[in-house]
Amino acid sequence: MASTAELQVDVVAADHSVWSGQAARVVARTAEGEIGILPRHEPLLGVLAEGEVRILLTSGEQITAQAEGGFLSVENNRVTIVADRAELSAPVNS
């Protein structure tokens, strides 16, 4: 049976919201290495490392943000990325 589950993703910097929306997948760099998040991922709390956060939208479009410091939280198809510093890069088609 095909899945229709999506992730609700929120990317915020210390002083502003960077991006919020629905996604099919999120890939981020943590202190332990790169991690990919799909719908129904187990709950997780990780320390962000400096690098890209890649968000694949359900349309196939990819959004990239540069993040530095902070943490990543996953629970109930919700991904929250709270970075010390973050900025959105231009969207890239996949």
UniProtKB/TrEMBL annotation:
How the protein sits in the membrane?
A: Peripheral membrane protein
Q: Name one Pfam family in it.
A: ATP-synt_DE_N
Per the database record, which ranges form the ATP synthase F1 complex delta/epsilon subunit N-terminal domain?
7-86
The record's subcellular location field reads: Cell membrane
Under the heading Gene3D superfamilies, the entry gives: F0F1 ATP synthase delta/epsilon subunit, N-terminal
Predominant location: membrane
Q: Which UniProt keywords apply?
A: ATP synthesis, Cell membrane, CF(1), Hydrogen ion transport, Ion transport, Membrane, Transport
The answer on whether this UniProt entry bears the keyword Cell wall biogenesis/degradation reads: no
Give the matching NCBIfam families: ATP_synt_epsi (TIGR01216), PRK13442.1 (NF009977)
Report the protein name in the record.
ATP synthase epsilon chain
Source species: Saxibacter everestensis
Q: What is the lineage of its organism?
A: Bacteria, Bacillati, Actinomycetota, Actinomycetes, Micrococcales
